[in-house]
Amino acid sequence: MNRYRLLILFLCIINLNSFAKDGYKLWLQYDFIENESLRKEYQSHIKRLIPFGDSETINIGLNELERGLSGMLGEVYLSKVNKSNINDYVLVLGSKASLSHDISSLLEKEFNTINEEGFIIKSITLKGKKQIVISGKTDVGVLYGVFNFLRLIQTNKSIKNLSIVDAPKLKVRVLNHWDNLDRTVERGYSGASIWDWHRLPDYIDQRYIDYARANASIGINGTVLNNVNANALILTPQYLEKVKALANIFRPYGIKVYLTARFSAPIEIGGLKTADPLDAGVINWWKDKTAEIYKSIPDFGGFLVKANSEGQPGPQNYDRNHVDGANMMAEAVAPFGGIVMWRAFVYSEHDANDRAKQAYTEFVPYDGQFKDNVLIQVKNGAIDFQPREPFHPMFGAMPKTPLMMEFQITQEYLGCSTHSVFLPTMYKEVLDADTYRKGKASTVAKVIDGTLDNKKLTGMAGVSNIGADRNWTGNVFLQANWYGFGRLAWNPYLTSENIADEWIKSTFSNANDFVQPVKEFMLASLEATVNYMTPLGLHHIMATGHHYGPGPWVSNLSRPEWNPVYYHKADAQGIGFDRSTSGSNAVEQYAPEVAKMFNDLNTCPEEFLLWFHHVAWDYKLKNGKTLWDGMALKYQEGVNQVEAMLKTWNAMKPYVDFQRYNEVKMLLNIQYKEAKWWRDACLLYFQQYSKKTLPKGVEAPTKTLNYFESLKFPFAPGN
Ligand code: BDP
């Protein structure tokens, strides 16, 4: 080989290496298991793969097994061997209908306990031969089983005597992409939209396939492709052809496509004069449009609608209500098995009272009036995806209406894709919260999985943090939030600790000295962020528009409830929004037990203190400190926690490839800097009202309040 060729070869190797660990492979790294005895142990249980059935989905499962097993165990696994030749230690996969009868009859009991998407992973002995079977009632169930089986190995679990039966607890598990047709992403911090509308339908980006694979691996079964602030053009034939191309790619992965429908589309693209939901022409327009969609996408999921919210059109423009609007669309999709996800994120421009009360006020009176195929999609809290919010009171108040959870995965209010915040901790706080609707233990999880009120249609939506960045989420750590969302949509009872554990091991390493400290850091990361941004129940004090950085001083926006001063209400007496019975009385929207707890200063959890109460600066916190001192110390604690996260990460260098190690390190450094910015700006601002000095232990700000107020970020992303 001449020197030139050698050089090319060398560059190729370097290049391969640098791409090998850039985060693109997400949690599906399938790293070679270095521990020889463990590897041998696995190898001894899997000698061959045998698929039953050859649908596209089964082949995807088979390829995944080949890819995963050869990656982790370093052997070539032969598939499609002669089925009559089943030997010991064969891994069998296939749905109930395609498995051979002697195998499927051994799983009869398990099949009876799973739903259509569930799976079984079981060690069996047939004619004296040991085998592992991965099965389900449907091919997609089998695929979920495959990913779960691979996860066992990724997380170094035993595969000796397997008997796993699992099925999703929620039906609709969807990502909501706030992606625009021009490839910008509202509140997106990970690059452009992954949907290359311009080159679709003919150009199929490999990313679409990898996206589908990643989602299937965590059980996500739907995707809403376009922004809730929708452009009606998505419903024109030109775009529907592109949507169809994506639907075709996603189908074998068990993923349905949904679209956000702009309520005024009949006018904008249909040439009608009105979008009144009771108008016969409008009703027919939606029926025809729906039929047109189903003709090319027979398994189309349905529509998501943001109506009469933040200026979006809706039924109220015609003096109709949410029921009129949602039911009209629900009737259009019903014949095809489609659903409507109607959002409850509404707040009136004409009611300056308390924004937190408005969605409940608008929706609860309609309980029981929506059609069976309507899900009301409710954000986790009543304001807007804050670092911490009490659960939305609607979850405890609409027993006759299927309510769907909407979480935000993208970090609009939590430091964009820069800050490393593990969100499943927050999701769990909400899911585990007790609504007391039917007495104790009526958790939000039981409301949304339908078990509390015996509801059939259930779901969870996550506002996606995915973009065209090579590592998908702009920060490798935030892949954990996509992962965790999927896992919780599958099973809202999983713990955030388990989710972190799985994710760390599948993404980075099983080394205990890595897993433990990183898990601790992830589990503490939400609290750290709440501390340096909005401790003790503060909320919505971010800067205007882009919400990047602190802006507690903002008071000049046209709508009162857009201003941070509306939320913190700091004055000479104290700080906080009085939502108790002596204030806006928002507490009344909760069940009596919950209302009582929040209403009473003594029982209100301190993490929600300033959410529900206006509290004097000298008020004594549970730790004996005054509110002012306690608040200042919380801000400092948040900064200290990020410093500790950074230290932990620095010590992890030996366990992580350089690229991912270094990217996370740089981002944590920014987070540390920004945590101090938050602390200093907020404390200087609130100090004008408290007129108190900073307690011992809180670092003195190095810049003035004027300086912080002067900072402008006209090009902050995602706006
Ligand atoms: C807010 C966002 C805005 C969204 C809106 C929504 O600032 O970009 O359009 O929520 O959820 O959080 O509709």
UniProtKB/TrEMBL annotation:
GO molecular function, one term: hydrolase activity
Domain Glycosyl hydrolase family 67 catalytic: 153-472
Any Pfam family the entry gives: Glyco_hydro_67N
Catalytic activity annotation: Hydrolysis of (1->2)-alpha-D-(4-O-methyl)glucuronosyl links in the main chain of hardwood xylans
Keywords per UniProt: Carbohydrate metabolism, Glycosidase, Hydrolase, Polysaccharide degradation, Xylan degradation
InterPro entries in the cross-refs: A-glucoronidase_C_sf, GH, Glyco_hydro_67_aGlcAse, Glyco_hydro_67_aGlcAse_N, Glyco_hydro_67_C, Glyco_hydro_67_cat, Hex-like_dom2
Ranges for domain Glycosyl hydrolase family 67 C-terminal: 473-698
PANTHER family per UniProt: ALPHA-GLUCURONIDASE A
Name listed for the protein in its UniProt record: Xylan alpha-1,2-glucuronidase
Organism annotation: Thalassobellus suaedae
Phylogenetic lineage: Bacteria, Pseudomonadati, Bacteroidota, Flavobacteriia, Flavobacteriales
